Amino acid sequence: MSRSSSVSGTIRKASRRLAMAAAATLALGGIAQAELLLPEKDELKFGFIKLTDMAPLAIAYEKGYFEDEGLFVTLEPQANWKVLLDRVITGELDGAHMLAGQPLAATIGFGTEAHIITPFSMDLNGNGITVSNEVWEMMKPNIPKLEDGRPQHPIKADYLKPVVDQFKADGKPFKMGMVFPVSTHNYELRYWLAAGGIHPGYYSASDISGQISADALLSVTPPPQMPATLEAGTIHGYCVGEPWNQQAVFKGIGVPVITDYEIWKNNPEKVFGITAEFAEKYPNTTTALTKALIRAAIWLDENDNANRMEAVEILSRSEYVGADAEVIANSMTGTFEYEKGDKRDIPDFNVFFRYYATYPYYSDAVWYLTQMRRWGQITDTKPDEWYAEVASKVYRPDLYLKAARALVDAGQADEADFPWDTDGYREATAEFIDEVSFDGRTPNAYLSQFPIGLKSGETVSESGVTGG
Questions:
Q1: Which of 51, 300, 365, 467 could form a disulfide with 391 if both were Cys (CB 3.0 to 4.6 A apart)?
Q2: DSSP 169-182
């Protein structure tokens, strides 16, 4: 990576290990006051996808937070989300920047089966939905306008529905891209479409395309390929993280119509995933890496985002996101550009530490599980207790708080910055685009509220929905 050559890295590792050994000797002699946790495994390789929300990994590396914990980390971009997950499962990667749905889906056996956990939630918000210029021109007459003539936000999928209906009347499929079947992007796009009366399709045990009964056909496109795929006309829109919505604006090929902040205010996004086996085998290492990531998140948000331009410069490097700094800054520094020239303030578009962003809430996990059930990836009705049980197997606030406590005791974080007394569930919220209330403690009651989506007792086959 950029901070050092392999030779200087080797020297640094040796020096660090000597220092740690000396500190350990002092601790054993009763001289050191604080507990010193030596990592069981100190050379680690972490994977990521080229998105701005991998920032905590890049900052923990560049600012030396990993090394402060005695960890010598290599960061490696991965080709796609499936490859990334598979390599964590096989041990080729020690951990990775993951879609929040990936540890949950793997643990319940949807797709590749493995027990993946997360001790750290990486961020809130950060995604958008972009449509092609053609679709935007068709949508615009339906959208209310402000006094200055700009579109009134948030832009609901209600305004897209006449366009989808026109495509259908013309015998043309309306196609949209998302990054992975268990991605936040898939669920956010489905949520937005369904709230506007556009059916995004179901999954079934025998048909994992997710297009059963669909008005809009959703399929997988890797994030960096989204703009080119849109430009080629293969898809008519997409949901993706940054900088790939802003890239469409800069290239003049599409218009971001809504951010996920407007779909669900302060929604959880990526997580850092490791295998349960890794956490059990290397408990000190797990605490150390979590400490480093928390420190990086604090740095990213501190002093009202004062460090964001430095973060933009780091992320723009080819070894990380590799997009122009100007494109990354367009959303990373508290603004978001919709139609070209229509830049608006969204200070919380990217949140890395505020609002307890890094705490792995059980209720966040439950929301993802409800969406898997809503669209048929979970094929059968499950009791509320099942959701709670899965959430507690995958999301590990105990590991998070252990790392947080160590940081507070060392004077590297403030006591008030962590939710020590929570039961792991956020308060119920209706801050969604459709104002439907979500309480993670009652997932089945939540699912019953939607006009579009599976209800209790219903299942999906290729011919449609049965039961209920």
A1: 365
A2: HTT---EEEES-TT
Range 127-267 classified under CATH 3.40.190.10:
yes
How high is the mean pLDDT of the chain?
93
Give the number of other CB atoms < 10 A from CB of residue 317. 15
Largest CA distance in the chain: 80
- 3-state secondary structure at position 375: coil
In 3D, which of 345, 351, 371 has the Cα closest to residue 438?
A: 371
Q: Which of 300, 356, 280 is nearest to 53 (CA)?
A: 300
Lookup: tokens for 62: 């560049």
* Burial group, residue 105, by CB count within 10 angstroms (0-12, 13-18, 19+): buried
Strand partners, 316: none
Residue ranges of the domains in the chain?
A: 1-34, 35-124+275-417, 127-267
Task: Read off the tokens for 289.
Answer: 């890496």
Structure tokens at 36: 């010193």
Give the sign of the dihedral formed by CA 49, CA 50, CA 51, CA 52: positive
Domain 35-124+275-417 coded CATH 3.40.190.10: yes
Cβ 378 vs Cβ 372: under 8 Å = yes
Alpha-carbon distances of 233 from 162, 175, 176, 198, rounded to whole Å: 20, 9, 10, 21
Give CA–CA dist 333/163, Å, rounded: 33
Indicate the pTM of the whole model. Answer: 0.93
Q: Taking a C-beta distance cutoff of 8 angstroms, is the pair 200, 439 a contact? A: no
Q: How far is it, in rounded angstroms, from Cα 75 to Cα 171?
A: 46
Residue 70 C-alpha from the chain's centroid = 27
Residue 31 identity: I
Segment 108-156, tens digit of pLDDT: 999 889 999 999 999 999 999 999 999 999 999 999 999 999 999 999 9
User: Contact 94/274 with Cβ under 8 angstroms?
Assistant: yes
Which of 119, 111, 152, 425 shows the shortest CA–CA distance to 287? 119
Q: Is 152 exposed, middle or buried (0-12, 13-18, 19+ CB in 10 A)?
A: exposed
Reduced to 3 states (helix: H, G, I; strand: E, B; else coil), residue 379 is coil
Alpha-carbon gap, residue 271 to 185, rounded angstroms:
14
**Which one-letter DSSP state was computed for residue 29?**
T
Between the CA atoms of 169, 452, 393 and 355, what dihedral angle is there, to the nearest 10 degrees? 90
Q: Which of 151, 126, 69, 192 is closest to 330 using CA atoms?
A: 126
Residue 22, pLDDT score:
46
The DSSP element (H or E) to which 240 belongs, if any, is: strand 237-241
Q: Which helix (H) or strand (E) holds 364?
A: helix 362-374
DSSP secondary structure string for all residues of 275-343:
EHHHHHH-HHHHHHHHHHHHHHHHHHHHHHHTTHHHHHHHHTSTTTT-S-HHHHHHHHTSEEE-STT-E
